[in-house]
Amino acid sequence: MTLAVRRTAFPSRVTVVVLLAVAAGLVFAHRLYRTAEISLSGAVLSVISSYGVDVVPERQTVYFGLGSDTPLGLRMTPECTSAFLVLPLIVVGAVMIALRPRIQSRVLFALGVAALAVVVVNQFRVLTLVGLVDWLGVDTGYYWGHTLLGSMVSVFGGAAALVAFVWLATRK
């Protein structure tokens, strides 16, 4: 009895290598990713805030509430970035394409939707924190916005992105 192993088509192999390279890039260049992510947060806050906002990209920090009674700087640490929620999706997507090359386009579409969802959820988490600091003050608002509610937003948003990824990648 022999088991036939289907060889992955060349374009699919290239896609797998590119996805794994992107995953490695997220690990090794996470500082650059965090800089982009905090810059996006600063842009969003500038649009919705009536107080000053300043981004210091080299420190991955956004300062908000400038000119208010509750100014605060928020640094995007490696633990708080969406990169490490996107990373497993990319790796799983690469494995799915390697095992079933014919679903490559569905997996890539699902990966794009899920990655965008994770980034949006993380931005919502930052906005939640900013809103709670503005509403409840720095100490209480930061505690509720970062430790409790912010973590719940990340967990539920990440779970929803994972469900969407699996559903979109595997549906016929």
Automatic annotation (TrEMBL):
Transmembrane segments: 81-99, 106-124, 144-169
Keywords: Cell membrane, Hydrolase, Membrane, Protease, Transmembrane, Transmembrane helix
Highest rank taxon of the organism: Bacteria
Protein's cellular compartments: Cell membrane
Membrane topology category: Multi-pass membrane protein
Protein name: Exosortase P
Organism field: Lentzea kristufekii
